[in-house]
Specification:
The chain has twelve helices and no strands. The chain has 220 residues and is an all-alpha fold. α5 runs antiparallel to α6 and α8 packs across α9. The longest helix is centred in the middle third of the chain and has 19 residues. The radius of gyration is 24 Å and the shape is elongated.
Length: 220
Amino acid sequence: MTRPLPEPTWNGAAGTIRQFIRDFTWFSKRCNFPSDYYVPDILSYIPASQFKVWERVAQDHPDWDDFVKKILEYYPEPSLVDSSSRMDQFISENKAQPHRTSNKCDFFAYLRWFTIVLSAIEHHRTVPNSEKVSKFSQGLSTIVGALIDKHKPQDMNEIIAAGNAVFDNIGLLDLKTKALFEKLVHSNLEACRQSVIYQGYTPLSSANRDEPGLTVISHG
């Protein structure tokens, strides 16, 4: 049984309009709708708060390509300055609340949001891998950032591999060392580097990332 195609939806947010138009175009093509009907058809998906603008543009630009070009003028993408400021704000918010990246689930939630914020900058310029890694690390809790830095990641794929390795091996710590880890979440970099957790952590080689990389040092 063929599954029905999900219809496109849009809540009126400027940040998702381009995705909505792509989804609508894909949906219409899959349904074999004539392109002459794209403009009037898309109006049925537009929320009331935006409808008058879309209706006026539709009346003046019945051709689909012209319509899309014109309607997007009402929803400009963020400038490079705005996108860069959003990245700085995002990093600052996470630095102020280091527990946001102190466990594996939250770490990867941070990674997803970082990718979204980063993509806005990449609309305007190429972001070198070194800058991506540096920016990403700035928003991490200090101990997590220090442990990941031991892997010397060169790009975001290596960040992901290092993150998996770090959190998987934190799970091997005894209760006393885990309690120390929780304290180090709020500590400075020097304290983290002097800790038994940092000193005892052996990063995985690129050829051996699936093997444990943590040596637990005795507290004495």
